[in-house]
UniProtKB/TrEMBL annotation:
One of its GO terms (molecular function) is transcription coactivator activity. It comes from the Eukaryota. Component of the Mediator complex, a coactivator involved in the regulated transcription of nearly all RNA polymerase II-dependent genes. Mediator functions as a bridge to convey information from gene-specific regulatory proteins to the basal RNA polymerase II transcription machinery. Mediator is recruited to promoters by direct interactions with regulatory proteins and serves as a scaffold for the assembly of a functional preinitiation complex with RNA polymerase II and the general transcription factors. The keyword Transcription applies. It comes from Neopipo cinnamomea. Pfam families: Med20 (PF08612). GO terms for biological process: regulation of transcription by RNA polymerase II. It is found in: Nucleus. Belongs to the Mediator complex subunit 20 family. Component of the Mediator complex. The keyword Nucleus applies. This is Mediator of RNA polymerase II transcription subunit 20. GO terms for cellular component: mediator complex.
Length: 206
């Protein structure tokens, strides 16, 4: 999962269309849509403590896994629960409070090209588009490091110089089996990066 910068002189939407055209020129077929969303929760006790930041928990959903809900801590574990976890979070509001207006999501089109699955998404916070996400999966392989060079080669064919480096989550995996939670960790890192990029101009407006 990686971020693609907006092309010079173009909008987010125009850049997404440009990438989509490149994929379709390669021969990729549209396979429906996808969505990944993320809500941020603060540990409630720390909110009132001045100068002390509470631990953040990210509750995420992915349309590829409609019956699951993912709860992640930064640099921490990834809990995979069933979809009812959202109702549990409402009951835990004494411990975790939802950071309102902080929901971020990526939605877009799924493409299939031979054994590759590509998800091209527009990242939005509230009504505005904040960035572009690209998720690429090589379906036959479950050991991430075994197919990284192949993934790189394929990504270069439509992302060019914006092909990402090896994700940090791979470093921890070595030769173990890649899981849906690893994908969610990468989306969490991407969303946090996009949030940080947006914070500076927003503060100036206020």
């Amino acid at each position: 999962v990686s971020q693609v910068p907006v092309a010079e002189g173009k909008s987010v939407q125009q850049t997404v269309e440009l990438l989509a055209r490149r994929l379709e020129a390669l021969g990729a077929d549209k396979q429906g849509t996808f969505g990944v969303d993320c809500e941020t929760y603060h540990t409630a006790g720390a909110i009132g403590t001045q100068g002390q930041t509470g631990k953040l928990m990210y509750v995420m959903h992915n349309s590829e896994y409609p019956l699951s809900c993912f709860a992640l801590f930064e640099n921490g574990p990834c809990l995979v629960a069933d979809a009812n976890f959202d109702t549990l979070m409402v009951k835990l509001k004494g411990f975790f409070q939802n950071a309102k207006a902080n929901k971020i999501e990526s939605r877009g089109t799924r493409y299939q090209y031979c054994d590759f699955l590509v998800k091209l998404g527009t990242v939005t916070m509230g009504p505005s588009a904040r960035g572009i996400s690209v998720e690429v999966e090589y379906c036959p392989c479950v050991i991430a490091n075994d197919c990284w060079n192949l993934l790189m080669e394929f990504m270069q064919s439509f992302m060019g110089s914006h092909t990402p480096g090896i994700p940090s989550v791979f470093g921890a995996k070595h030769d173990s089996v890649y899981s849906p939670g690893d994908t969610m960790v990468q989306y969490m890192e991407l969303f946090n990066k996009i949030r940080k990029q947006q914070q500076v101009p927003v503060a100036g407006i206020r």
